[in-house]
Amino acid sequence: MKRLLSVLALVLGLALAQGVVLRALMEDVPETRIIEALLPEFERATGIRVEFEVVQYSAMHDKLVAQLTAPESAYDFLQVDFLWAGEFPAAGWLEPLEPFVKASGFDLSAYFPSMLDLVGYYRGTLYMIPMYNYAMGLIYRKDLLERKDLKEGFQAQFRRPLALPKSLQEYVDLSLFMAKRAGVAGAAMQGQRGDPNFMEFSNYLFAAGGDYVDRNWRVTLNSPQGERALALYVRNIREGAQKGALNANLDDTFRVMCQGGAFSMITYWWMLPQLDNPKQCSKVAGKVALAPMPGGAGVNGGWGWAIPKNGRNKEAAWRFISWVESKEIVKRRALQGHAPTRKDVFQDPEVLKKYPYYKEVERILAGAKKVPIFAYTAEMEDVVGREVSLAASGRKPVKQALQDAAKGLEGLLKKAGLLR
Amino acid sequence: MAVPGSSRALRHLAHGLLWAFSLAFLLPLLWTLRSALLPEGQAYALPPVWGPWTLENFAQALGGPIGKALRNSLLVASLVVLLGLPLAAGLAYALARYRLGGEGLRFAVLATQMLPPIVLALPLFALFRLLGLAGTLQGLVLAYLAFALPFMAWLLLGFFQGLPRELEEAAYVDGASPFGVFFRIVLPLSAPGLFAAGVLGFLLSWNEFLFALLLSGRDTQTIPVALSALITQRGVLFAQVAAGVVLSVLPVALLARLVDRYLVEGLTLGAVK
Amino acid sequence: MRGRQAAQLLALPGLLVLLGVVAFPLLYAFFLSLTRYSFLRPQYAWAGLARYREALEDPYFLHALGLTALYVALTVGLTLALGLLLAVLLHQGLPLRGFHYFAVSLPMLIAPVGVGLIWKMILHPELGILAYLFGGVDFFGDPRYALLSLALVDVWQQTSFAALVLLAGLRSLPKEPLEAARVDGATPWQAFWYVTFPLLRPVLLALLVLQTLAEVRTYDLVYVLTRGGPGSATDLVSYYIYRKAFLGLDLSGAGAMGYLLLLLTLALVALYYRFLTRG
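Above: the input entities. Below: the structure tokens describing the complete assembly.
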């Protein structure tokens, strides 16, 4: 009976939704254009028009916060980055989605648990539906691994064949080897303080078997694994990375890799099609490949759909979200190049034929770990990033930097009320 | 300071130094122009390429958000100057000649600008949303007016203080009213200062980022916001940034030179009877 | 007295605008700084001066203040010196004056985002033209040079504006004192130092204050070029406060720091006036 009532409410909401205009702030990336192209179909099917305001990433958070703290939000649904996936629910700005899911029979099992953990649930309540993934893995030059002189040199030095590294130590060894012998940087690293170096370092941390916090939010960063990770990170950025790595951001590392200046890059998996594109990167197209982070666990990243609590057209917004994340629409987006977050679409043969490297992406996604998602995730990036940058520039010893980072993180967790 | 009869060597040195400065300012911009005329992938290739030349970046810039932003920025900045300059001149003159409010008011006027913009941005945004001004160009003009006003007044204060009082006093002796003195003697004599203050007001609006970001909507973006939109997650579109910069700088610089030559120099020469 | 009333009338419109649009956020921000307001707990829990005390005990905030003091001294000093030199040169009536004026006026018109991006690419240690021609210095990635590099890019832009303002100042000067000096046989240097410079003082001082405030506010360039790094080598205070508000979601803390900054800046400006307006 209750279910019938909720369905009726939904249908009533839908009826009232005719003639409604939904607005959203979207990131200026090709994926948004792909969805935009499908919007007229949605309007024909439901009578609801959707308008996107497209901005670049660094403007999004500030604009969203300004709207979410106002009495009524100008945006009816949101595209939320994982970095804010703790902040927004903690501030009470998002509408819980379980009632909508139940009422419309939306199937959550199609999503990878790692995605729902990242951009879905916050402390047990569902606030978001995953819409895009950008987990991190290893992109490397397979042609350099095939070079005879390098193979011989490597065998001579390490007494094992030149191959994809299986652990963090092996990776850094390989990177330093390439820097010395192959005439390129061993790794294109994004050492700029903040999001760039924090995301990159987190891969090292996870690969070494470390983590930021345990299940009860106690800080485990300054463990022996954490120390090993930071020491290896510092070694790689000082001896194996490109010039200027300490201030390099994603854009810089992409350019270096694109010009053939580095052997490897620990980065977002979507960099692969960018690098493998002969029009954009003629020097390396066809020579690059993707693999999970050596050690198996890389950093997860992604975006999710959400509905603001102070929004106006919540039912219509849910109608859009359930439509754009339905299997059929996700598959059509995928065939245009918008990577999915649904398992069924990832394994669809048509999609795999067009994008064979999705097999690797799925492996990466399945094993990806998340950094702590809470109210101050963005500030954590800055605090930990600062300490990592200080260690990398030689201004602080590794042990001290790690301890200060752990202390900083602890302070933030306490501020968020997760630690006593 | 052009004291005729100074040695030729000094003059040559001065000429050389001036060229050094001009080149220091021009060369990076010429380099940027070069990048703007190349396709995106080639703009920063090494060794530097000198072709294939293309106008696609300019076409894209003009037809896209930059073109609209250019119009918005011009409109907003011009309005701020047109509305703000008279207000600032009035305020500055009152402070300079009549010591209105004494030292206290002078500092209070300036103190409003000593807070980092971020502290004021969110309350201002909330206020504007209440007034229905968020996302409008009028709202932006109002916000910029409020911030440019103290600066323009402060600069004009300096110019007014440097004016010799004899001319004004002579006018009073002749029976002129305070308003007459202000409008017919002080203002024409301060033409260079007014121009400088106008430039200041223009620049503050032209280059401001934070308020423009928060208060702008889809169609009311200004140039700093539109330029920063070229910093995408997939990389910075440098060739387009270069085109955007060239487009936003050249016409205004030409305009500045014209205003300076015909308006300011003309007024100054005319005022010194 | 009629003059006084006239003065009040002249000043009134300006003051009204200021009051309306600026006073409210100013007062609200001050009020916030006395509470424990954050985005996550949007309640006005009274905190008195606690936020101010916390700011003064925050080593990173103090570091940012010290760094900013150094940065302001460097940039303002260089900008005014170079700007004055350039203004004097432009005032000489040398050939091609229009062209030089046009060239000098260009940098100030570029949005700081644009300035940052242009110089980022020119100074890039791997992909920049300077690196290509002269070998790469890691301008922004080396903690020893990062602040200096930031300052140089800033000065490049600000000198453009300073030169034009000081040129306007030079043009506003009465001609008589200089002619009198020439008649008295003064050298160009003496004429400048004893006649022109003192007359230019009010404008110079006004510009000094404007530039000081502008440099204290520097955060656009930091955002585009270094994000405060490497380490905290370029963590200027305005950028620090910006992060406190938007990353730390802490409007009260940011407000307290902002007002502390205001007090310090006010003190600095008062010092300028104490020592530079005599005689």
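Note for the figure: The first helix of chain B runs from residue 8 to 36.
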